[in-house]
Amino acid sequence: MAPSRPGESREFAEAVAALSGASLPAAIDLETLPAPVNLAPHAHAIGGAVVVVSAASADGEEDLATGRLVLLHRPGGHEEWRGAWRFVALVEADLEAEIAEDPLLAEVGWSWLLESLAEHGAHYIAEGGTVSRSSSRGFGGLSGRPATTAVEVRASWTPVPAPDGRGGGSSGSGIDFAAHLAAWCGLMMMCAGLPPEYEGVANLPPAGSRR
């Protein structure tokens, strides 16, 4: 179990331990980040990236997508969350410019999140979020840099136990926190262009990776 921190409840410590013990794809690189202090009494933050071997990179590796996942816990519950727990997620990735101009990009990006949550058995309620795109082009001394377009998925949801009471939930809460971490990692893989094949969900290749 992950070490508890001052003032941390046993229930929250168990949830953090479940996140720390999750089994993830080899391409995923995670690190613990400083947790936000003003969102909930208890918070745990994780940074992540989809890392692949790249001859074009100085260190031999390239991040195809990056993200952040924060687990929040308010023991007395939160009206807007409709529960005592909340995940807040961010995923960012560069895309080919012509793909990023697809008018359905936002819908596809949001479907990736829902598909990944379902695929990993991560049950939830009260979901919400945004999918946005941004473009950049260099000028002057930076005019030689290729233009880039990025997709950004921001989302939050309240994790809940499986309806049938099964699903590997941690002690006390009944929530499978590791499944939610795996779903977020699955979203990063999808945004990076390295997802498992989901029926009816388009895959968008990352910039420069499919030439």
Per-chain topology:
Layout: H1 10-20, E1 28-33, E2 42-53, E3 61-78, E4 83-95, H2 97-100, H3 105-119, E5 124-136, E6 148-159, H4 177-191
Antiparallel strand pairs: 1-2, 2-3, 3-4, 4-6, 5-6
Helix pairs in contact: 3-4
Your description of this structure?
21% of the residues lie in helices and 35% in strands. By secondary structure, it is an alpha+beta fold. The termini are far apart. The C terminus is likely disordered.
**How far is it from the N-terminal to the C-terminal residue, by CA?**
44 Å
Helix content: 10-25%
The number of distinct helices, counting runs of at least 4 residues, comes to: 4
Order of helices and strands: HEEEEHHEEH
**How many distinct beta strands?**
6
- Beta-strand residue percentage: 35-45%
**Would you tell me the overall average pLDDT?**
82
Structural class: alpha+beta
From the spread of the alpha carbons, the general shape counts as elongated
| Biggest beta sheet attributes | 6 strands, antiparallel
Strand order of the largest sheet: 1-2-3-4-6-5
CA radius of gyration is: 18 Å
Unreliable sequence segments: 197-211
